Amino acid sequence: MNTPALEIQLQTLPNQPGVYQYYDSEGTIIYVGKAKNLKKRVSSYFTKTHDNGKTRVLVKKIATIKHIVVDTETDALLLENNLIKKYQPKYNVMLKDDKSYPWICVKNERFPRVFSTRRVFKDGSEYFGPYTSMKTVHTLLDLIKGLYSLRNCNYDLSESKIESGKYKVCLEYHLGNCKGACEGYETEAEYNESIKAIKEILKGNFKDSLSQFKSQMKQLAEDMHFEEAQQIKEKIEVLENYQAKSTIVNPKISNVDVFSIMSDESYGYVNFLQLSYGSIIRSHTLEIKKKLDETDVELLELAITEIRQRFHSKSKEIYVPFKVEIGENIKVTIPQLGDKKHILDLSLRNAKYYRMERFKQDKIVDPDRHANRIMAQMKADLRLHEEPRHIECFDNSNIQGTNPVAACVVFKNGKPSKKDYRHFNIKTVEGPDDFASMEEVVYRRYKRLLDEQQPLPHLIIIDGGKGQLSSALKSLDALGLRGKIAIIGIAKRLEELFYPNDPIPLYLDKKSETLKVIQQLRNEAHRFGIEHHRNKRSKSALNTELETITGIGEKTVVELLKHFKSAKRVANAKLDELEPIVGVSRAEKIYNYYHNK
User: Fold this and answer.
1) What does DSSP assign to residue 181?
2) Of 276, 329, 259, which is closest to residue 129 (Cα–Cα)?
3) Using CB atoms within 10 A of its CB, is residue 417 exposed (0-12), middle (13-18) or buried (19+)?
4) Which Pfam families match (predicted)?
5) Residue 319, exposed/middle/buried by CB under 10 A (0-12, 13-18, 19+)?
6) Residues 511, 402: Cα–Cα separation, whole Å
7) Which own/partner pairs from 155-159 qualify as long-range (CB within 8 Å, at least 24 positions apart)?
């Protein structure tokens, strides 16, 4: 059967919530998406002009559209998530279903065992987790073992087998780690009380266990059983110590999931905090690779569905930084202040730290990837036509109008290329005129690069506002380079970025990496220029005094400074120290000048 044309497929789509699937001409699924209204959402791909190049390519490759109608938007979210994980379509964000998380199992049996596992069976047992690290599992199991006496054997402790005396107590009983249920020394009701308390602890509720232990301790002390009371007291201390290590938020905040997102041009980082009885019982950050320039809202909606599914969350309320659509049965709260806002900020901080750690790891393992990411970010942020792999930044330096100089620093792939730095002494400008000086150095720099057939930069940064930028543009016009090299000016006070022929400046996020690279360039140009300016002034000051001595020329000054290293040492030198360097006649002139003075 021939596939109908796309126009016909679009016309026959229902106005219902559901999931749509795009297939290419070879029948391979290339994209899965969800929609409140299938017809409107799918039609928008073919009627809108897409800014993102990958989206335009996707639309060109669509040959067949299939859809699945569902009852609610929640069902659409879950189905979309499952299909993405199953088929891993080329243009969807990457969602990997990791089945290897550890769990704590309370076995479905008489006298249940409590142990860690990575495999979940539908045998009626209760599984708590999954946990994001094995260390957390071991810590909890050690806590439980210290508080309650549970068996760790795998015997079938049926009532008939215990009564027939089939089993004998082992070493664990004699060590006090087990109460001997295998020989009937502990009743099933007593054992199940411990299991009930353990389940509450695994849910994050320490209150009931603490209350129970304190009652036991008080009763034992009243009955004069002080040794047993001391043992219970030690258990209370263990439990309180563990509880203190948990991040306590607010006892009133219970059974809530908290989600936040931090993203860049390639990845989204979604942090998940799970709260129970006022404590954080789980933290996990999911890294999502973007495919079609997805928004933070789209990424967060997908991540919330995936994480809640992965960690089997039953919470009826979530805290998020902005409005998301994740179904009808979940309360969405956007905290503005107080403890709720504090916990959301904590989640965002976790996402940021995770992102920073990934960047550091990438920088060590694959330095090129780090540079590529920054270059792509700068291209997007600064609205450039190509990545600014080669950037040059200019700065003028004149203090109180003396010795005007300029500096040009060069960054390649986001890093300083110090061998390419250049100093300029201002030649054609009289007095302190920053605009004319900028025009001169930009012209000289690129005239030379053109004459020597050297590669031109992708981006020029002028340290200054509209005036300096206009002066630099005059030089580019004179050289025929206007439009061939991107050029911007950065004003010192508010970090405003100015573009040619655009009166409105661009303001970047103060924490953006693009702004940090630009600031580093500007600061480096300033440092390099000031250093040259200082050297020039000090050299000028030294030379001036020595050259005022009658009969002492430039060559003599150079010889003296080579030997004595400074003008001060020349002034303090004895006559017999000067004579071997400059001869008797000139030595006397120098000696007499300083000593008569």
Assistant:
1) G
2) 276
3) middle
4) GIY-YIG, UVR, UvrC_RNaseH, UvrC_RNaseH_dom
5) buried
6) 37
7) 155/182, 156/109, 157/109, 157/110, 157/111, 157/181, 157/182, 158/110, 159/110
Q: Are 259 and 168 in contact (CB under 8 A)?
A: no
CA distance 203 to 5: 54
pLDDT of residue 545: 66
Q: What CA–CA distance (Å, rounded) separates 382 from 391? A: 13
500 preceded by a cis bond (ω within 30 of 0): no
Name the residue with tokens 């699924």.
29
pLDDT score for 400 = 46
Residue 535 is predicted with a pLDDT of 61
Q: How many Cβ atoms are within 10 Å of 198's Cβ, its own excluded?
A: 22
Dihedral, 235, 241, 245, 246 alpha carbons, nearest 10: 50
Check residue 393 and give its pLDDT: 92
The token pair that represents 374 in the structure block: 């920054």
The whole-angstrom separation of Cα 549 and Cα 590 is 7
Q: Which residue bears the tokens 């938007």?
A: 73
- 3-class secondary-structure state, position 268: strand
The alpha helices in 426-512, defined as continuous H runs, are 434-451, 466-479
Whole-structure pTM value: 0.53
Q: How crowded is residue 338: how many other Cβ atoms within 10 Å of its Cβ?
A: 9
The vertex-559 CA angle with 555 and 560, nearest 5°, equals: 115
CA distances from 335 to 302, 433, 542 (A): 21, 53, 65
The whole-angstrom separation of Cα 51 and Cα 54 is: 9
Q: Tell me the average confidence (pLDDT) per consecutive run of 10 residues in the chain, 597 residues long.
A: 68 84 87 86 81 78 84 76 80 67 84 85 78 74 80 85 85 84 86 86 73 82 83 76 57 82 85 78 81 84 86 86 83 86 85 80 71 85 88 76 75 89 79 78 90 90 85 89 88 78 81 85 84 58 63 76 75 85 84 77
CA of residue 431 relative to chain centroid, distance = 48
Length of the chain, in residues = 597
Instruction: Give the CA dihedral 231, 234, 240, 246, nearest 10 degrees.
Output: -110
Q: Do 90 and 35 contact (CB within 8 A), yes or no?
A: no
Please give the Cα distance from 475 to 482 (Å, whole number). Answer: 9
Burial readout 41-61 (b: 16 or more C-beta within 10 A, e: otherwise)? bbeebeeeeeeeeebeebeeb
Model pLDDT, residue 390: 93
Question: Are the beta carbons of 240 and 210 closer than 8 angstroms?
Answer: yes
Q: How far apart are CA 198 and CA 150, in angstroms?
A: 10
CA distance 326 to 78: 9
